[in-house]
Amino acid sequence: MEIIKPRTLSGFMELLPEKQLKFDKMVEILRRTYASYGFAPLDTPVIEDAQILLAKGGGETEKQIYRFTKGDSDLALRFDLTVPLAKYVALHYNELAFPFRRFQISKVYRGERAQRGRFREFYQADIDIIGDGKLDILNEAEIPAIIYKVFRGFGLSRFQIRVNNRKILNGFYAMLGLSGQSGDIMRTVDKLDKIGADKVKAILVEDIGLTEAQADEILKFIAIRGTNAQVLAALEGYTGREELFDQGLAELKAVTANLAAFGVPEGNFAVDLTIARGLDYYTGTVYETNLLDHPEIGSVCSGGRYDNLAGYYIEKQLPGVGISIGLTRLFYVLDEQGLLNPELPGAPADALVLPMTADPAPAIALAEQLRAGGIRVQLYCEQKKFKQKMAYADKLGVPFAVLLGEDEIAEGKCSVKNMKSGAQEKLTPAEAAAAIRKAVQEAENCAVILEK
Amino acid sequence: MEIIKPRTLSGFMELLPEKQLKFDKMVEILRRTYASYGFAPLDTPVIEDAQILLAKGGGETEKQIYRFTKGDSDLALRFDLTVPLAKYVALHYNELAFPFRRFQISKVYRGERAQRGRFREFYQADIDIIGDGKLDILNEAEIPAIIYKVFRGFGLSRFQIRVNNRKILNGFYAMLGLSGQSGDIMRTVDKLDKIGADKVKAILVEDIGLTEAQADEILKFIAIRGTNAQVLAALEGYTGREELFDQGLAELKAVTANLAAFGVPEGNFAVDLTIARGLDYYTGTVYETNLLDHPEIGSVCSGGRYDNLAGYYIEKQLPGVGISIGLTRLFYVLDEQGLLNPELPGAPADALVLPMTADPAPAIALAEQLRAGGIRVQLYCEQKKFKQKMAYADKLGVPFAVLLGEDEIAEGKCSVKNMKSGAQEKLTPAEAAAAIRKAVQEAENCAVILEK
Q1: Do A381 and B99 touch (CB under 8 A)?
Q2: Fewer Cβ close by (within 10 Å): the C or N end of chain B?
Q3: What is the CATH T-level fold of the domain A351-444, as seen in this structure?
Q4: Does B316 touch chain A (CB under 8 A)?
Q5: Looking at this predicted complex, what is its ipTM?
Q6: How many Cβ pairs within 8 Å bridge chains A and B?
Q7: Peptide bond into A295 cis (omega under 30)
Q8: pTM
């Protein structure tokens, strides 16, 4: 037979079992956390009608999309989870209860230029709350609580949720008579972290055509720093001049007012006037999230409030608020930087049962008893020498090997070997299941992400 | 804005939240059961190099596949999970421990003619055990235990795992001097349930060219019925004439020998000589699974032993055994026939917290307390009249509404309303969480599939 060299396409993540188990653990934490806030799971097709997916059209999206025909159909793979959500909500408008809260953790596709750490197939983990006509600001206030729970769930405490409101920015630019340039200004200010204040000013003046005074006003504004209370107090000084600004400030205060009730510590939350989010899409609160010890990773969870989710598909005003975590990239970077906790279980089984007798029946029954005790058990089925069996247990990385020979069978026990310490003891099946379960649960409860 | 009518492509399942929760419950049961037997999760890309995916080439596959180019790349969407597994095992051969056990529950794509109950995007839930050079028969014996646990996990008891061995069939046809026609014969015999014995005989004689005597021998053979012990005893009468047959019988006996140790009741298992599985791929044990009260659904879990998983990609003999559940189709049929249990929770939250005061802080804090108590809680954030709030709770289908007004706050309690019975009582947050958790767990433990 002619051999075709196997390969996985570049830009597509394919993990070995140990890594996959850790990835799946992150997905599980996301699912559990999102579900605990009453979000319904959603699973839309990977393939959609290209006309529908590209209703908004234009720009980078069109170039990156995987689009093809099958028969007469013009098809495309989803490039995010928001457009399919818009389609879903418009299509099922009459069947859904609004506010409609959904989470979706699914793969999306972008045929970008292949590049280290960039993926063409990657998971997004999104939540959105969609209102029918109106959506209370309290929904925007709840989002930081969910972000907080997710990253605490990953085992982190050193992260910061940075929040701003687009109405404050747009209102402020209106005060300066710069409403027409607000998009350009925001995109420039967004680069502050990367290029510094001097270069931002240069672009504002030279490229966008602001006066020196206007540019200085903007830099002074976005330089407002301090505790949340201090920043909000400084913003009070700008009120009474522009309605949009005042509205934005009222919303920002509403978002920060109940942090304590939501259980979000001040230290994990910051009002940050430099956050704008490049997309025109957002109209109110915007969110970014940074790992304090790893600013180089950039925002690991972003989103915001928008006013018109599905205008391309339905004549209804459907405002919403949502966030997205680029899970594949996050996992890749964490792994590359050695931040995945090696203590987290990476073996496909908690115990490997090794039959030491000709008749496998007692070992089979033991494995079933251990499974009934709540642990993951692989029965070793091959006829090999003891040394080879133990080498397999080692390569698999199972924390426990459970040996069952004539002696153990006669005593109604099994020999449980801790593969790490080498310690071995004879236990009844019930004792063995309890001991292994305890050790595994301790390991399962450890942080996914290491905080050094 | 011009409106584009939203639609989901035909042949693509997209569920409303209530159904999605039930679907996800089945996925969770599959994941948990597969993991409990030491299978590692795997998540391969949806898109693969078309040359690699179609290494085997030919036939229906090539016609049905979604194949397209992007830049210079000839790409295709996976049409099953076995070919990607073969690629994965060949690619990562040196990094994997053999036997390699993996499960994958993922979507696959087949551009079939659209037809009621046929899907172009559907989930397969597969397990496979891959050996390096050899794989002990005990692995084949373990498979029925896993199938049994999965369907018991779904809440069923009236199902039957039907098992045969291709070596018995091939050996038997060799005895009749019909080795050359064995493929045609098996494909014909496979239709026995659908077309009956007379038509099978007619095809064997008229189309395949067997003598009347040969056809009668075959019909007599596949008519062997009875308990597992009776069928095995009848097969003993054919031994000593053909080595392949004897080997197959020895394997079949090994597969049935340890059923009790594996915890599989006789009533859920049957040696069935009519099972052949059409694919040439299988070489030993073959499996099908039927719901006894719904034979019309056909096999809901099938698979078998094969000798050469990855011969297209690597010069290694990699035998394996695996099964596959076509989950999307199974779910569709169960739903259509009304077999999904309506008692299974279908709401995205266990409780809806309704703030009854102007300040939302107490309700926010209550919702967080309830979540910490292990239940899924949606905080109702909108400013609406009480009647509208309750109408929303009804439409959402939440089992409990939790009301928090001035009176409750003063007492340190909340009012928990059972939405089904209408009963309402004042409880502390801890009592409320415990009461709701208890009710929800009872509902969660009910069977996914109804057995009437």
Answers
A1: yes
A2: C
A3: Rossmann fold (3.40.50)
A4: no
A5: 0.96
A6: 272
A7: no
A8: 0.96
